[in-house]
Amino acid sequence: MPDLISIVEADPDLADLLDESQLERARREAVTRVRRLSPGAWDAASALEPDTHHRGFLVVDGLLSRQVEVLGRRCVELIGPADVLRPWTWDEEGSHVKAEVGWMVLDPTRLAVLDHRLVARMNPWPKLGEELFSRGTRRAHHLAVALAISHHPRVEDRLLLTLWHLAERWGRVRPDGIAVPLPLSHERLANLVGAHRPTVTTAMGNLVRAGAISRADNQVWILHGAPPEVFRHHRLVAAMS
Questions:
Q1: What is the CATH number of domain 4-148?
Q2: What global pTM score does this model have?
Q3: 197-207 pLDDT per residue, tens
Q4: 4-148 and 152-240 have identical folds
Q5: CATH for the stretch 152-240
Q6: Closest CA to 212 of 200, 201, 221, 202
Q7: Is the separation of the CB atoms in 135 and 83 below 8 Å?
Q8: Could you report the per-residue pLDDT of 133-159, keeping only the tens digit for each?
Q9: 88 and 44 in contact (C-beta within 8 Å)?
Q10: What are the backbone dihedrals phi and psi of residue 22, each rounded to the nearest 5 degrees, phi first?
């Protein structure tokens, strides 16, 4: 038997869009297959299933990274629960700049398959389809913020803004600050902010000495103080007050 999951059980935010009677029916009928990924490199192209009119995946849980490399310089996007992705879509012929795209599974991950059969099963609840479509726009917004952050000249500023940007989604409020429970080595941070690893190591040391961040025993980064002005309206600010 294939590993199946209801789309509304895979994502609580989708369940919140339906009333109780709709939700009960959706739990039974809006089901799809689950693909499980183990940590390591992922050959995303092999995940395409043309015969099933495969539209993409919804991340149920886990953590992945997408790496895009152009002329030896690499940027990284972190992708986690509730994200929607089409990992095989890359228009190589439509770009004058050649880019190499790779995927890494950072934590054990489950992906709900978004195919034609699921779309047909979700027809009674158009709000579900609308929300899944909006997830792509949400990713584009987060990438635009990351791009704006990358234009700050000081590496310390780029790192601090990036950590607060990640904390908006993954942060956990604790008595001594905001924990960012992600595997953020200096090398990965360097790829996130567009800097060399030794420069990031120096900059992180400066931020630690300034009291802006610290490292917990479990290697999780902790943010201290108030978030930068650009994030003053975000939910973490309310959680800290």
A1: 2.60.120.10
A2: 0.85
A3: 999 999 999 99
A4: no
A5: 1.10.10.10
A6: 221
A7: yes
A8: 898 888 888 999 898 998 999 999 999
A9: yes
A10: -65, -40
